[in-house]
Amino acid sequence: MSSNLDIRPVAGALGAEIHGVDLSKGLDTGMAAAVRQALLDHLVIFFRDQSLEAPQFLAFAEAFGEPVEYPFVKGIDACPQIIEVAKLEHEKTNFGGIWHSDTVYLQEPPMGSMLLARELPPYGGDTLFANQYLAYESLSETFRKLLDGLTAVHSSAKADVSKTREDRISSSGTAEAGKEYLSFHPAVRTHPETGRKALFVNTAHTVRFDGMTEAESEPILKYLYQHQIRPEFTCRFVWQPGSLAFWDNRCAQHNPVNDYHGFRRIMHRITLKGDKPA
User: Fold this and answer.
1) Active-site positions?
2) CATH number where 24 lies
């Protein structure tokens, strides 16, 4: 099926653009399967020049799973499963502006997320992605064995990431905005569809390892945070009007670059329901 798609890898580690598809027309079963396979093969896929109204964007997402509402920020009126990810001209902090996997502090973190460009700055605002299969596989056998036996503790309240939500919570926060979510997941998760192992800790949400103190966990986590975003594990996406990105949250991290102060950047995001990591 995927041979019918025009798939163009953007980097050696991960990422591919898919051309020649008009998502506003919807996807039949075969095309949806081919797109899903492209996602599994490349971890993050990109579409250009897509003119989608909110219901069309939601329909595209529903071809791959169940859209779920984000816990801290209200969705848009037309489709509450879609949240607005915005940085306004006067703001200095961008939403989620740190390396992370989405909402891993939930008991069932999302399988994937989608971002659709609505308004873009004249320059900057790219998004970086990192392959966590490679991050795990490139570690020594001894280190992999150590991590295979560890459970990571994740919190929604780590300071570096919670401050990136403050502007959006002040303008469109939910009743859950002040709540702390806590989860326990394997430090290395096995992807339920590919069977590959991926490193599953991130600097935004991981607090420590279960059974260890934060001080004991810190040297290991500090090393992993630097290791998992090595340049050779990453790709960089330059947004254009109508660009859409769809990434696999189970094996890829992302980081929106905050380099466009004084300009507006408005995106629409959909998150898809996942399962409990194993």
Assistant:
1) 100, 102, 254, 269
2) 3.60.130.10
Strand 265-272 and strand 82-87: pairing? Answer: antiparallel
**Each residue's pLDDT tens digit, 106-142:** 999 999 999 999 999 999 999 999 999 999 999 999 9
Instruction: Output the CA–CA distances (angstroms, integers) from residue 172 to 43, 98, 272, in the order listed.
Output: 30, 21, 21
Q: What is the pLDDT of residues 8-28, one digit of tens each?
A: 999 999 999 999 999 999 999
- pTM across the whole model: 0.92
Strand, coil or helix: 227: helix
- Give the residue numbers spanning the domain of 184: 2-272
Biggest alpha carbon distance in the chain? 53
Q: How far is CA 76 from CA 31, 83, 173, in A?
A: 28, 6, 12
Number of domain units in the chain: 1
| Residue type at 29 in one-letter notation | T
Contact status, residue 184 vs residue 153, Cβ threshold 8 Å: yes
